[in-house]
Every structure is written in C-alpha cells, then in structure tokens.
C-alpha cells in the first residue's frame, strides 16, 4: 500500500506543485489542502484536494487531515508550518482525543520543543550559536530605540528580517541608519489592504487578509551583514536523522533580497555539517531549508536562517542521497532508497518559472538545465497565464502598461504549442 502524504499550503506557490509531482513519482499517494485554483491541480499527481480557507485556517487543515488520514504531512510554506504547529498545541490540550493528530504532526515535523525555535528567526540563531555553529549576530528589535542601540553597538550594514515571511519578501539590507529606520517601519507594519486584496483576488491567497484587517504587527530581527556568496541547503529528515540533502550556491535571484532563480550544485562540508547538527539536536522530521552566506574573504559558511518547510529545489532528483522525495518514500515504507534518474548532469539549474519571470531572455535558460516540467503542459500553461494576470494587475495598479519586452515574451509563450521538444520558454 502506498504511503499517503498530505501537502499543506496556504499560498499558490508553484514549487508546491513540483513537489507533489516528485512525491507521486517516488511512489507516494498525494493529497493536498490548498487555496482554490492552486497550480498543483494541473499536475495529475494529486489524488484528492481539500480547500484551504484563510479565514478559518485550522478548521481547513483539521478537516483535511480527518478525511485524508495521511501518513505524513509536508508544509509548502512558512504559514502552513505555523498553523500546523498551532493545530498541534490545540490538539495537545484536547488530551486523548487529539493524540492521533499530535502523533502525525510529530512524525511529520519532529520534536515539539523545536517548533518555536524553527518558527522564530532569532530563537533559531541563538540555538545555532549555542551549538557552536558559525552565525552572524542577530537580535529582535521592537522599537526604533532598540534599532539605534544595535546599530551603535554593531555598526552597519545590517539585514532586517520580519518573522513569518519568506522568499525575500520580509528582508531589507540597510547601509545607513535612515535605511534601517525606514526598513524597520516597513517590516513591522501590517500588510497594506491593497496588497492583501491583490493576493486574494489574483493569487487566490487570503493569508494577508486577517493580519491586514486586524492590523497585526510583525516581529523584526536585525542581523549583521556578511559580505559574500549566498548559498542554500534543503534536506529531508526523520527523528533527527538526515536522510537526503541538496546544497547549492545561488547564482541569480529575483531581486537583491529575493528568492533564488538560478542555483549551482556544490559540495560544501561546512554547510552539510551545520544542517546535520541542526537536524540532530532539534530532533527534526520532514523537509527543511537552511540559508547560508559564504564569506568572501574566508569562504566560511555562515548559517543565517532556517526555512521550516519544503523549499523551491526540494523536488529535484540529483542522484543517491540527493533525492528528497525518494528518501522520504523509503523512510515511510521502511525500504532502501531507490533514487530516480538524475534530472540533469549539469551543475547549474535555472528554476522554472522563477528565472524566466526574472528575465525571459536570460542566457541561463539555454546554458543551464532549465527545469521546465514539459511532461505537464497544462501546468506550464497555468504558470504562464498566471504571470500574465499578475502583469495586468500591476499595470492597472501603476496606471501604466506592461513593458514591451514583457508583453512580447509572454505573448510568444502563450501562443507557442508546448511540447517535449522545447528547451526554453524564450525559444
């Protein structure tokens, strides 16, 4: 009997669809709880889909778990992890009636004492420091006075980060005190109602509606700036044992503080050791990402944060101990790992649709392995159509038309029959 994985996501993030495909190909039965019109509905890899409702999130998740009865839950984004941790706390208070859900969540995410540590940036950095891992100084700043005191003591530049954000959405680099104060004000402020509306109407993502309406402020951290190369690791683990891992240098990003769009596979002993220590000492299970800075002068790997969820490279199969879905399937079935064939022999990977959205004429779409799921043309078309809708929204919001290169690139893709022979969306 196939192990069943419930993929829980609160946003219509494209990489969640790729993970669903990879888990299905590895041998898992996949169910999902997600917003309406999530692209994973276009994969043909999901057995049953339950609707996630942002205004009643715990009820949505609990209902999906009760009906699906999965063997494992994978979180597709940070908010999903936070909500599942909250569900665990609620069911723990229910005693014996909540025991089965608690056992499932412990099997999926690890030791409960780790939950607040992996959710809160400053708590995780303090944990890593006490474990002897190489980390930059990090503190919570609650007021402008806290901010000024930290800058006086530690200097600039610095990086400000808001808890509960991902993909660079809640990150700012400050090189002056004025930059830092402006970033602090922006990051702690509740989401703008216009932004929440855009997310709900265009992305079918209601996660910002409640904090916008209730004017919830976010926790902001400040971190010493490390000059160097960004890098990232993604792992799958079980009960504190690392099962498989991928380590990459970041080649291109969507923006200066945004998510990676092109990555290069590397072997880095310091990154691998840091991830293994964190997994073991926190007793983690499931999918996690670790972000690093490789210092320019020394190449030392500074651990800068943990992502308690699947990351955008988690679906890639790159050989033994580098195939996370296959490793999870084997662990759930108590079998030896049988990794899928390598998706590429190239070290450099252009992520789809991330690099195409960044630059539809990027040379990496030709020179690197362009990770387009050609076998799922409906999924590719859905991504293209979604991008066109977003462009239209921003054009209306800014009262100006989308740029000519953007219009022509999107029109060319939309008009092009999608076949297995294509190698780049810009061709």
Explain the overall architecture.
By secondary structure, the chain is α/β, with parallel strands linked by helices. It folds into four domains: 4-109, Rossmann fold (3-Layer(aba) Sandwich), CATH 3.40.50.20; 137-224, Dna Ligase, domain 1, CATH 3.30.1490; 228-340, D-amino Acid Aminotransferase, Chain A, domain 1, CATH 3.30.470; 351-415, no CATH class. The chain is built from 16 helices and 15 strands. It has helices at 14-26, 57-68, 78-93, 99-109, 115-119, 121-130, 144-154, 177-188, 193-201, 209-214, 269-282, 324-333, 354-358, 364-367, 377-398, 404-415; strands spanning 4-8, 29-34, 48-51, 72-75, 138-141, 158-162, 171-174, 220-224, 228-238, 241-253, 260-265, 286-295, 301-307, 348-351, 369-371. The strands form three sheets. A seven-stranded mixed sheet has the order 13-12-9-10-11-14-15. Helix 1 crosses helix 12, helix 2 crosses helix 3 and helix 3 runs antiparallel to helix 4. The longest helix is centred in the C-terminal third of the chain and has 22 residues, at 377-398. The protein is globular. The termini are far apart. Mean pLDDT is 88; it is low at 391-427.
CATH topological fold name of the largest domain: D-amino Acid Aminotransferase, Chain A, domain 1
Distance between the termini: 43 Å
Number of helices: 16
**Average pLDDT rating:** 88
**Largest sheet, if any?**
7 strands, mixed
- Strand percentage lies at 15-25%
CATH class category label of the largest domain = Alpha Beta
Summarize the amount of helix as a percent range. Answer: 40-55%
Radius of gyration: 21 Å
CATH fourth-tier homologous superfamily of the largest domain:
ATP-grasp fold, B domain
Low-confidence stretches: 391-427
Going by CATH, the architecture of the largest domain would be 2-Layer Sandwich
What form results from the Cα inertia axes?
A: globular
Give the strand order of the largest sheet, numbering strands 1, 2, ... along the chain.
13-12-9-10-11-14-15
Structural class: alpha/beta
For the secondary structure, the number of strands is 15
> What is the count of distinct domains?
4
């Amino acid at each position: 009997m196939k192990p069943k994985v419930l993929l829980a996501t609160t946003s219509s993030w494209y990489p969640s669809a790729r993970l669903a495909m990879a888990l299905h190909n590895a041998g898992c039965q996949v169910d999902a709880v997600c917003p309406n019109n999530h692209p994973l509905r276009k994969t043909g890899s999901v057995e049953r889909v339950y609707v996630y409702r942002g205004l009643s999130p715990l009820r949505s998740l609990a209902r999906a778990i009760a009906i699906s009865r999965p063997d494992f839950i994978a979180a597709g984004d940070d908010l999903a992890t936070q909500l599942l941790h909250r569900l665990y706390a609620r069911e723990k208070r229910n005693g014996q009636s909540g025991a089965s859900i608690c056992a499932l969540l412990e099997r999926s995410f690890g030791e409960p004492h780790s939950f607040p540590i992996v959710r809160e940036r400053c708590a995780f950095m303090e944990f890593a420091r006490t474990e002897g891992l190489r980390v930059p100084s990090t503190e919570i700043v609650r007021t402008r006075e806290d901010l000024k005191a930290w800058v006086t003591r530690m200097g600039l530049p610095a990086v400000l980060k808001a808890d509960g954000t991902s993909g660079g959405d809640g990150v700012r680099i400050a090189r002056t005190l004025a930059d830092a104060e402006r970033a602090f004000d922006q990051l702690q402020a509740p989401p703008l109602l216009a932004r929440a509306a855009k997310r709900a109407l265009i992305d079918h993502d209601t996660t910002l509606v409640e904090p916008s309406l209730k004017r919830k402020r976010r926790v902001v951290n400040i971190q010493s700036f490390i000059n160097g190369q960004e890098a990232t690791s993604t792992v799958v683990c079980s009960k504190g044992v690392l099962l498989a891992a991928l380590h990459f240098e970041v080649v291109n990003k969507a923006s200066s503080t945004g998510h990676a769009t092109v990555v290069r596979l590397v072997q880095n002993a310091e990154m691998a050791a840091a991830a293994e220590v964190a997994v073991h000492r926190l007793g983690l299970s499931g999918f996690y990402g670790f972000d690093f800075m490789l210092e320019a002068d020394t190449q030392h790997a500074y651990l800068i944060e943990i992502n308690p969820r699947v990351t955008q490279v988690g679906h890639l199969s790159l050989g033994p101990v580098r195939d996370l879905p296959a490793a999870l399937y084997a662990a759930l079935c108590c079998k030896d790992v049988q990794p899928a064939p390598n998706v590429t022999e190239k070290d450099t990977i252009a992520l789809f649709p991330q690099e195409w959205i960044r630059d539809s004429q990027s040379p990496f779409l030709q020179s690197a392995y362009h990770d387009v799921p050609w076998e799922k043309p409906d999924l590719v078309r859905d991504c293209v159509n979604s991008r066109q809708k977003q462009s239209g929204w921003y054009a209306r919001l800014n009262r100006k038309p989308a740029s000519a290169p953007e219009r022509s690139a999107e029109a060319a893709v939309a008009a092009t029959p999608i076949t297995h022979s294509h190698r780049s969306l810009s061709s």
